[in-house]
Amino acid sequence: MSLLHWMPPKSILSKWLFKGSPSSLDSIPILRAMAAIAVFPSCGARRLNARPWLRAVRAASGSSASRSPSPLPPPSGIDAIVDAPSSGAAPPSRSFFPKRGQTLELVCESLAFKAKGICKVADSGFVLMCDRALPGERFLGRVSRKKDSYAEVTKLKTITPHWDAVEPPCQYASYCGGCKTQNLSYEAQIRAKEQQVRDLIVHVGRFSDKDAGFSKVMKSIVPCDLLFHYRNKMEFSFGHERWMPPDVLTSEDKMESGYALGLHAPGFFYKVLHVEKCLLQSEVANKVLAVFQDSWMDPELGLLPYNVLNHSGFLKHLMLRTGRDVKTGTPEVMVNFVTSSYMPSLLMPLVDKIIAFPEVVSVVNNVNRSVGNTSVGEEEYTLYGKSSITEMLRGLVFQISANSFFQTNSHQAEVLYKLVEDCARLRGDGSEIVLDLFCGTGSIGLSLAKRVKHVYGFEVVAEAVSDALQNAKLNGIENATYVQGDLNKISDSFGKDFPKPDIVITDPNRPGMHMKLIKYLLKLKAPRIVYVSCNPATLARDLDYLCHGVTEQGISGCYSLKSVQPVDMFPHTPHIECVCLLELS
Ligand SMILES: C[S@@+](CC[C@H](N)C(=O)[O-])C[C@H]1O[C@@H](n2cnc3c(N)ncnc32)[C@H](O)[C@@H]1O
User: Fold this and answer.
1) Where is this region: Disordered (predicted)?
2) N or C: which end of the chain has fewer CB within 10 A?
């Protein structure tokens, strides 16, 4: 029996997928996709006939195979050459399944979800995935992990570059965990993202691309006009151990201090890549970062980075947020020090330096005494200026505090929210009820509030709920109610406290919606659902439930998928946002 047909035992599947929540082994396809992309859904899914992730990969790479260079004999030191099949060529006679540690010469065929480069064995279809391998690239890779139906490969060396290679402007682009595709032309990046959404909608969502209306449903991706400096928030970590990939480490680097302020090294929670600037954040935030980098390691200041291994040290994170002054439209910056204890006198020399920038209007200190390394503190102190900054979105003013959620790309959030508004198709006569699920600080619902009767928002984070109430007040909105609650734990009485909505907006985080919420929506039968998602895999699963039902639980779907609109909010990264419209069938 081919390895391709082997499935992990049910017990393992349940454990991997559901982490204690009630399970359904019909989640196998999601497991396939999720295991490959390291994202776990929060609730059950259903069985598909085959491996949708593999099928998605095959479908995505089908047209590209003919562009692969022709095979060469393996040079010494390389265990095998694994080429994509060239179009029309007879398949090789033997199957090939690589072993862990094997060095292979590979050709990347396409880019799958999460920006994994996909290579395939010509005859068996065995899939090899490689981080940072780009379509058309021929490279040497070592098999680092072997699963039943795919293997992961670490790229050792590029032999010939990919088709759409560009020179990345950032000096850290080839090894920083943030921008994985900066060396791929932007046009190629968005083409790949659009294809990934389409593949997931077809193979996980079970919507047929053969249907006459399918091409109308799948919209072209909306690109982002700002390719750099689009992030309004960056969180840098302090580290006691500076990380550089071994092949770029110079003797000068080795002699420098081991301390670092930057981004986590991919795959290491305790090693930090020291960065002098990040091209994704605002220009002014980079100026502030440069001042920190020039001074924080000065021994006279006595500042020690927090050591996550032995839990000593003081400085944990530096968060920089950029908003806008609502009167002048000029940037305003919040600096948030996350420390392991409250010792403001240690921070003041740094504060004095950064407040020289007029844009810095807020300096706060989140104190996180726990051994965990998150940036949310148990206590927050304002060291200078205001305790929050402001930003404008769809003509409304939002107050953003250090720990409140706000769309990270304000420029593209304007585009995203306009798409949500278009999908909502409000009558504008002030008669409709909007249910804003996973409302965060209320920004989506509030942008609709002035044209509807009432907005009801639900959100699990208490601070976000109080921000939403504050934001409603700030904008003179009185027809919005915000409730704190966990939408994964709703009871049968959920929905009894508000009128039946005309429009449901749902914007869950990466795991998508819990089965309880899916069931509630299928029972509620609101005329329209606008689903905003940052994870097309869980989006596709939930669309399947809402439209086709949860077969094994005897629940029918009752929605028709009217549109899927991918939006690129984060150029050079694997992230994809989508706005979908569902209408009651
Ligand atoms: C992607 S954000 C969307 C926020 C908001 N719609 C916006 O556009 O700014 C998802 C939100 O869902 C909230 N959330 C996550 N899990 C939740 C749960 N189980 N119940 C309720 N809210 C949850 C998060 O705190 C976060 O604010």
Assistant:
1) 63-93
2) N
